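## retry 2 of 3
previous attempt timed out at serialization; input unchanged, resubmitting
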Amino acid sequence: MSYAGPAQRPQRAPNIYPALGLAIGLAVGACIAVLATPQSGPDARRALSRATRRFARRGHYAWDDLRDELRHYRHERARQRQRLKSRSRAEASSL
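## retry succeeded, writing output
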C-alpha cells in the first residue's frame, strides 16, 4: 500500500445564499411598497427618491463610524504591542 499524502479537502464554494436572500427580499419589498402605495406615480417616485437618499446617507455614516472604530482598535492594538515589547525588554535586561 502506498502513501498518497495528506487527504485533499474539497474546495468549498462561497456561501452566497444569505446575500442572495437579502437581495431578493429587498426587491420583493420594493415591489410591494410600490404597488401598495396610496400616492400617485410622481409623488411615489419623489418619496422613494428621498427615502433612498436618506438610506444611502445613513449607510455612508455607518461605514464612516465603522472605519473610525477600526482605526481606533488598530491604534490601541499597536500601543498594546509597544507596551508589551517595552515590558519584555525591561524584564530581559533585569535578568
